[in-house]
Amino acid sequence: MSTTPSGAGDRLVQVGAIVFFVGALATLVTVAPLFLGTDPFPPVAYAVCMLMGVGFLIAGAGVVRSAWVSSPKRAANRA
Question: Which of 19, 2, 27, 26 is nearest to 61 (CA)?
């Protein structure tokens, strides 16, 4: 068990990773009929694939937030 305090954007990175992997799984499921020769899924299934990009943006926002909070300028103002 770690006693290290979590950073400002850690939760955003975790949520972004989960959303990204849901989108990646949806992409694999949506592309499978192309290789199996079955009927394609409805357009809503393709919209779920966009979660990959949304998750990437959420995780990126978490990284930016962590960097912004721990920047030297902001740390000097807090001390």
Answer: 19
